[in-house]
Amino acid sequence: MKCPFCGDPSTQVTDTRENEDADTVRRRRRCLACDKRFTTYERIDLKLPVVIKRNGSRTEFDRNKLLGSMKLALRKRPVMAESVDEAIARIEERLLTLGEREIPSEKLGELVMRELRKLDKVAYVRFASVYRNFEDVEGFSEAIREVTRGRARASKT
Asked: Is 6 within the bounds of a domain?
């Protein structure tokens, strides 16, 4: 593993930990050349489906792109990074259990909205506004009604 600071390939693992689900290994490393420390994550590389975009083009599923989209929706919201990582893991798990080689971006967007709705209602509306391409205030109003209906159902139970 090359050091991200100086590029030297001589690094040493100082600590190794598995997450609770034992599907990711976190390693603290120290560069033997510059003595800086950094963290790496190791996870199983499973074949996720290819995403079919709205224009018909196909692209590989990109966890980092998904993380970036969710972080943008969650910007300045009180949601822990661990919760976002867990949501992404649930999305990836769902994609794997579908067993499909390809998935429309619309279906992926729905999975993301389901997870954002659990994490933060404001982030859900933000993401929905871009994903559903709201053209007017009525689109926002409908998304807010969806969130409040869900909250009303949850309080009745």
From this structure: no
